[in-house]
Amino acid sequence: MVTKKPTPRRSAPKGGVKSKHKGRVFRAKKGPSKGRPQSRQRSRTQTIKAPNGDKLRIIVLGGLEEVGRNCTLIEYKNDIVIIDMGLEFPEENMPGVDYIIPNMSYLKGKEKNIRGVIITHGHYDHIGAIPHTVPNIGNPPIYALPVSAAIIKRRQEDFHTKKLNLKVTKADDVLKLGSFKVSFFHINHNIPDSVGIVVDTPVGRVCHTGDWKFDFHPTGMDHADFQKIALLGKEGVLCLMGDSTNANRPGHQVSEKVIGDELEGILSKAKGRVIIGTFASLLGRVKQLIEISERLGKKVAIDGYSMRTNVEIAKEMGFIKCKQSTLIKPEQMSGYDDSKCVMICTGAQGEKRAALNRIANGEHRSVKIQKTDTVVFSSSVIPGNEAAVQRLMDTVYRKGAKVIHYQMMDVHAGGHAKKEDIKLMLALFKPKYYMPIEGNHFLLRENASVAHSMGWDESNVFVGDNGQVMEFWKGGGRMTNEKVPTEYVFVDGLGVGDVSQVVLRDRTHLAEEGMVVVIVKIEKKTGKLYGSPDIVSRGFVMMKDNQKLIKDTRDLIKKVTVDTDKKSAADPKYIRDQIRDKVGKLLFKRTERRPMILPVIIEV
Fold first, then answer.
1. Taking 60 as the threshold, does the pLDDT of residue 42 lie above it?
2. For the chain, N or C: smaller number of CB within 10 Å?
3. What average pLDDT does range 115-138 have in this prediction?
4. For strand 489-492 and strand 114-118, is the pairing parallel, antiparallel, or unpaired?
């Protein structure tokens, strides 16, 4: 970015940034940071050669090629801090997988260097991997604001792993973590206690936005701390890492106040029950709905395990305040007039076992869709869920209920910045280097294009891949070609990392082509066939409708066994390979499908 000659400014005082934001100080084993924030220097278009000496390394272990699995590692000499540790939900080609977590193999042997895990907010794509990863990297301290800490603690109760070293912080706290000084700045998102992270390092200041948007009328929260953000920019930012989730969308993000006004209009005009599906973690929206319902004299039922859990946490933390009589159980709705009932539930993404799907399909124990109901989808559609959401809407429409979604009215505001918001953030922070994070590659590029339009040179905007190492020194930085392992680590039930790409390939194969099991009995010493081979088809063909194909397959198996070289006849592995090869070719020739062939050899 081409800039005017910077005006002289005082550097930050030794030991921290001079600011009126005071708070507690947490200290790790190592002493205070020796570095000071660096003033911005003139950007250069040419490639800068890295000087000799110690460098700051930033490695994004997840979140540069997908939405989710957010995890960023910052390393200087023997000090490491990690920002967020989230999960990613599986894609359609990952059958049976519950979710994906960051690959921590780079940290093997470096566990003693990890000074802490810093959490930006309590969404699962930023905290969901903690039960699986933190105990395996030395159980370092986790620093999180109250709501985030409460969600982490409650989630940990579902796992039988080592107790976490969880430390509750405040937005104005300063953490001394080895050679790093970590502080926070308040930002808007759709969950309380969302913050950006400031890491003052020996080579300069690094800022991480987390998930964010600017909202001048947020629900139950203050607007972003513009004063502190501007102060950080004035003092100098070497690198800013910024959220890319909505970077491809023009304009400013819609305010939650607009959404609240629309929802109040819907609730006040509804003649029957209102059933609202939204994200379980969208506590700001849930707070709005409860408060609006209470003003209108309506009762509110909460359904969905995650949503009930989060609402309990929000009530305990004082974020959600309402009369005890306002909240009722779903089974109590039948005891009130329909016009006085509101249900807030999970399932707006079409999840099969979520509350809204069960209600729509008549599987809920106490609530069924009625023609007088108004069903509101108060969320956007996550990419990949379009078909599931449309099926759910079709089901609700078939039941005769009225449907409202975000494309019809302003019933949902995203929690992520759009293009014009990003421009304002860049103008306030004025970083020397900008690093788009948190999004698919096309979103990172869209984010980078915003920085380019603001005057940042391409050489100062780093669009990398997961695991790519970024190096920084005083006044400079570069993308390197070095990469650390970031392969998927799959969580499937109680198994972590025991599902590989080979296993997924087999699952996909079974789902697409089916399986044929061939059971053969042979004489142990001679390999002579005993009886007739048994054939079992699953997901391939109906055996009773394809008797000729089954007979020809059985005849082929007999021929393969009889014609086997006598020297190899007693080798079960050889016979298995022959059956798999010959039967596979026959079935493909007859059906042009390739089922998984599973020969079972029983020696008698």
1. no
2. C
3. 93
4. unpaired
The one-character DSSP state at 88 is B
Does the predicted TM-score (pTM) go above 0.85? no
Q: Indicate the burial class of 341 (C-beta count within 10 angstroms; 0-12, 13-18, 19 or more).
A: buried
Q: Can you say how many angstroms the Cα of residue 302 is from the centroid of all Cα atoms in its chain?
A: 24
What is the spatial distance between Cα 140 and Cα 28, in angstroms, rounded to a whole number? 10
Of the candidates 57, 70, 50, the residue with the CA atom closest to the CA atom of residue 110: 57
Distance in angstroms (rounded) separating the CA atoms of residues 112 and 30: 12
Phi, psi angles (nearest 5°) of residue 417: -70, 145
pLDDT band at 19 (very low <50, low <70, confident <90, very high): very low
What 3-state DSSP class applies to 569? coil
Whether 46 has a pLDDT exceeding 60, the answer reads no
Strand order in the sheet with 99-101: 99-101, 489-492, 495-496
Q: What string of DSSP letters covers 31-77? A: ------PPPP----SSPPPPPSS--EEEEEEESSSBSS--EEEEEET
**What is residue 530's three-state secondary structure?**
strand
pLDDT at 34: 37
Find the DSSP H helices in 492-544: 501-513
Which residue is it, tokens 């198996």?
557
Which of 63, 1, 33, 53 has the alpha carbon at shortest distance from 205?
33
Active-site residue list: 243, 416
Three-state secondary structure call for residue 482:
strand
